[in-house]
Amino acid sequence: MVAGQSLGGLSAMYAALEFPDLVSRIAVQSSSFWWTPEAMGGADPLGGPVGGAVAARLRDRNPDLSGLRVAFDVGEHEARMLPHCALVETLTEQAGATVRVSRSASDHDRAGWREALLRDVAWALA
Asked: Which Pfam family name is an example for this entry (predicted)?
């Protein structure tokens, strides 16, 4: 089980994709799915391709994620994050993962993550 928020959520997703024999459950909140290797050098890191490098990887490699259980959460007030997260959620489910999607009444902050983390880890481990 791996969990994370923001860049930690991105890292948790990469752990599941890179090490499917070790990571079969993840819970991620407000994941930085906008990230690409070039994003941090740009004027607007969130303005790149929707879903960033994770979406590209899911489309290009077409992995079998049937052994993965993922709880996704992102804050309703994270308007610029929502499209990135929504695409990765959809592609992950299409790749065979068991997916739960939630939207918290929060922004990109610990106040929203604390309840989502407990709820989503419990679901992922069920």
From this structure: Esterase
The answer, yes or no, to whether residue 113 has pLDDT greater than 90, is: no
Amino acid at 28: V
Give the CATH number of the domain where residue 68 resides.
3.40.50.1820
Asked whether the beta carbons of 4 and 11 are under 8 A apart, the reply is yes
- Number of domains into which the chain is organized: 1
Bridge partners of residue 102, in order along the sequence: 73
Q: Can you give the residue range of the structural domain that contains 63?
A: 2-125
Closest CA to 30 of 93, 105, 98, 107: 107
Structure tokens belonging to residue 23: 């990571």
Tens of pLDDT, residue by residue over 51-98, are 999 999 999 999 999 999 999 999 999 999 999 999 999 999 999 999
CB 103 within 8 A of CB 74: yes
